[in-house]
Each structure stands twice: as structure tokens, then as C-alpha cells.
Amino acid sequence: MVAPRQDDNLEQYEVRHKDLDRETSTEDIIFMRKFESAWRKFLSANPHLRPRGKKAARMTVLESQLTQITTSKHLAGAELRKQLDFFLESREALEETYANEVEYANNLQKVIHDRLEKQLDGVAMSDHLMQQTVPWEHFLDTVDVKATPQYEAASPDHQGLKPSARAMALIDPEGDAEDVRLRALRMDHALLSTEIQMLQKESERIDLTSDSLEFVGKFFTENNIWGILKKQQAGQERRQQM
Description:
single chain, about 240 residues, mainly alpha, 5 helices, about 75% helix
């Protein structure tokens, strides 16, 4: 008796007595029918024991290949997700590093900008002070030209105070001698008070100019300004020679 396949109809495998190449009795036929029935029930209860046909074998191969493809797909997907996570982490790290560098550069630029603004304010104040002191110096030089020795003829008072030639050159010499001397002494006081203020302004201007020069020197050194200028000059010379 041929064992039936899983995808076959069990009834077609029933052995009939005429299929046997021998004489069979009634008892033989009954026995074979009972055996066939028991065999059919056994195979129905244990389908995994039934032999597989070509179609089922092909399905098994296809299922195996599909399983391999699915497994490979899952492995490739897992690897891609792993690489994606790595790239995302790397990108986040790079973005954080870049953000920190940008923040540092912005802060440094702000500090430099504030220092430059402060120095520019100092330069502006120095120029403003110079505009006040230079005319004053020019004024004194002009007065000194006029203050010839003839203006020193005034005699000192009882306290030994004697007007300066500058004061005598700036007042009207006409009138009572005592009145002239008093007006000259008041002029000396005004000149000295103004001179003190101008000297203070000049001292402040010198300090501001000194600070600006020191800042410029450090700025040029720290940022290699001279090297940049030399490279630009060398590049211009090469372009001119071409």
C-alpha cells in the first residue's frame, strides 16, 4: 500500500480486493477495510507523518527562502537603524560642538567689539580734549608774542604781587596805575585757573592716547594684523607682476 501524501484525498488510497493479484476471501476484505480505516484515522490524527508532495516541498523551500529574506531584512534594518542612531548622535554632538564654538566666537567678538567701542570712545574723547587744549596753547603763544618786556613795567604791590606780562598785554593799560594792576592780577588769576584746567585736560588726553596706543599694539600682535597685511601686500605684488 502506497502511503498518501498530505495534499491527496485519503479515499483514493483504499485498497480494493480486485487490485490484489490473488484470491481474497470475505474475511480478507473486511480486514483490509478495517486496516485502511485505522490507517486513515492515524494519518488524519498525525498529519506531520504524511509524506509531502512536490507542491508542499516547493512551499517549504519558498517559506525557508522567505524566512531567510525576512531575517536578512531585519538584520539589515537593525544595522541601518544602528548606523542612523550613530549618525544622529554624531550630528547632535557636532551641532552641540558647533553651537558651543559659535557661542564662544560670538562672546569673543562681543568682547572685542566692546573693547574697540571703548577705545573708540577714548579716541573721540582724546580728540575732543585736544580740540580744547590746542586753541588754548595757540592763544597763549599769540599772547606771548604780544607780551613784550614793556608790559612788565608794573611794580609789585605791598605783598610783592606783580602782574605778568601776559596779563598786562591782555588788559587795557589806560587808567589809574593801581586799577590797572588790580585788573592785571585778576587776569593772571583767570589765566592760571584756565591753565590748570587745560593741563588737567592735556594730562587726561595723554593718558587716553597712551591707552589707545597700547591697545592697538596688543590687538595687532594678538590677531597677527601685521602678518595679514604682509600677506595682502605680497599678494598684490604677485598680481602686479603677472
